[in-house]
Amino acid sequence: MNIIDGKKIAADIREELKLKINLLRENKKNVPGLVTIIVGENPASQVYVNMKIKACAEIGMNSKLEKLGENISQDELLKIIDDYNKDDYFHGILVQLPLPKHIDEDKIIEAINPSKDVDGFHPISVGKLIIGKDTFKSCTPFGIMELLKRYKIETKGKHVVVVGRSNIVGKPIANMLVQKEEGANAIVTICHSAAPDISYYTKQADILIAAVGRANLITKEMVKENVVVIDVGINRIKDAESKKGYKIVGDVEFDGVSKKASWITPVPGGVGPMTIAMLLSNTYKAYSLIENLN
């Protein structure tokens, strides 16, 4: 069993971006800018946003946090997004989800200029992804692709089973892996709760990607020898031995499955750190396109 160290790869990516941004500053050029918009006081969202702001500062990227009240109207939020669409200082716009119930998330996502859609959620970005055009890719699945690439894990002709069909991870990672290109070209099965027996599919996987948000769902009996396991799940479970009273585990029962896996991501420290790294990478890409660097 070998560990896929997302924390290390994410640090490598941040360092690569930092060097590029330092070079821009030395040449007295503008640098990439990211605005993050958060609505309300969701504690988890605030943690994620603070991590993103910190990561921007670490690599020298311009960033701004736009904190808005829980009761802001949808029209007011749309106006703020439109202002940032027109603001040349910011190359990426990220609206932290979830939003309050009175706001239509789809309308908010669709309001973002596709050239600044660094989250990769805009319908234009998703459509381009499906037909194999260059586009912004949703950050978590993009991070998975980068891990597979940097660890030189072969995907061509391999059977990838994705457990989960969310618009954030399951669907986009399946679409990325099925493309006829280097680092993809896989045979992909999407498995979800409608399957009478999920293990029928997971036992066939050369590469298993678990992204459903159910603690320890995948056990050693559900995988074959030498499987590559990518665990996207982040679940909090009670732990009397922990000072916090809980611990964080993935969708994969690590101790058992790791004994059969050839490669596996830990939780935490696997896929999680890659999400912010790829957000920064997408923002640099947006900057490059807008500033015509290429």
Q: How would you characterize the overall build of this protein?
A:
By secondary structure, this protein is α/β, with parallel strands linked by helices. The protein has 2 domains: 27-113, Rossmann fold; 139-272, Rossmann fold, CATH 3.40.50.720. It is built from 10 helices and 11 strands. It has helices at 6-26, 43-59, 74-85, 105-111, 123-131, 139-150, 170-178, 198-202, 254-257, 272-290; strands at residues 2-3, 33-39, 62-68, 92-95, 159-163, 187-191, 207-210, 227-231, 235-238, 246-249, 261-264. Strands 1-11-8-7-5-6 form a 6-stranded parallel β-sheet. A 3-stranded parallel β-sheet has the order 3-2-4, sandwiched between helices. β5, α7 (170-178) and β6 form a beta-alpha-beta unit. It is globular, with a radius of gyration of 19 Å. The mean pLDDT is 96.
